[in-house]
Design brief:
The chain is an alpha+beta fold and 243 residues long. It has 3 helices and 14 strands. Strands 1, 2, 5, 7, 12 and 14 form a 6-stranded antiparallel beta sheet that branches. Helix 1 runs antiparallel to helix 3.
Length: 243
């Protein structure tokens, strides 16, 4: 009986440890200098290596082919690269679709990054965001492998989209990112829902591959229950020994 109780208690404790190290989703939403630094720090602390790709030398066309990934428009449209403000590299127009006024911009107006090898950490620069079309908010989303959209930025007014650039001036240029260490992904989509808003993306793209469970997480309620079972079993064993 004692041996069985010990096995059950240790098994429950092991399940807790596994569950408490389960997947975590983190996001970054900040000005470009601070947001980029935050991405680097998060990846480094999780034991990963950041890859940085600054968009230069882009040409118009139906796709952007980079070393590790290819970018296409979700609406099968063409790219017309340009520059914007103080963003680190060239950008492309991904203004939300739909009628103005309204908040019905969809994923169709966004872009898809198809990676040659899997990643699970991804971020880049966005410009001219949150300058209009708050109904009640204007939002930005990232999705991994057609999964549930991750909200990476939300603003209810113009001031919430202003951040300092490298010169300290307040601008509507931000860095957004999402981390999901539940798995690895080769397809990443990004879009905004503020119909009527001008929006550009690109500049500098960052990505990395992290080990599953490498991000700091909080045990879910089920995990806490398993811990309780494990501790209760160990406590019962201790009481039997002292009787």
């Amino acid at each position: 009986m004692k041996k069985t109780a010990l096995v059950n208690a240790l098994a429950a404790s092991a399940l807790f440890m596994a569950a408490s190290a389960s997947a975590t989703i983190l996001t970054v939403f900040d000005g470009i200098p601070a947001g980029s630094a935050s991405f680097n720090t998060t990846v480094t602390n999780a034991g990963g290596t950041v890859v940085t790709d600054t968009w230069t030398g882009l040409s118009s066309g139906s796709s952007l082919v980079r070393t590790d990934y290819t970018v296409t428009m979700n609406n099968a449209g063409s790219f017309f690269p340009t520059t914007y403000g103080t963003m680190s590299g060239q950008v492309i127009d991904i203004s939300p679709d739909g009628s103005f006024p309204g908040q019905n911009g969809t994923i169709a107006s966004g872009i898809t990054f198809q990676f040659n090898t899997a990643v699970n950490s991804f971020g880049f620069e966005v410009g001219d965001w949150a300058t209009c079309c708050f109904n009640p908010t204007t939002d930005l989303f990232i999705s991994f492998n057609d999964g549930t959209p991750i909200l990476v930025a939300s603003a209810a007014n113009y001031n919430q989209g202003l951040f300092p650039n490298n010169a300290g001036a307040l601008v509507t240029e931000i860095f957004v990112a999402a981390f999901d260490d539940s798995s690895t992904f080769t397809k990443i989509q990004f879009w905004g829902n503020g119909s009527g808003e001008y929006l550009v993306a690109g500049g500098q793209v960052k990505y990395a591959l992290l080990q599953q469970g490498s991000l700091p997480g909080v045990p879910e309620p089920a995990s806490l229950a398993l811990l309780g079972i494990g501790l209760a079993g160990l406590a019962a064993m201790r009481r039997r020994k002292t009787v």
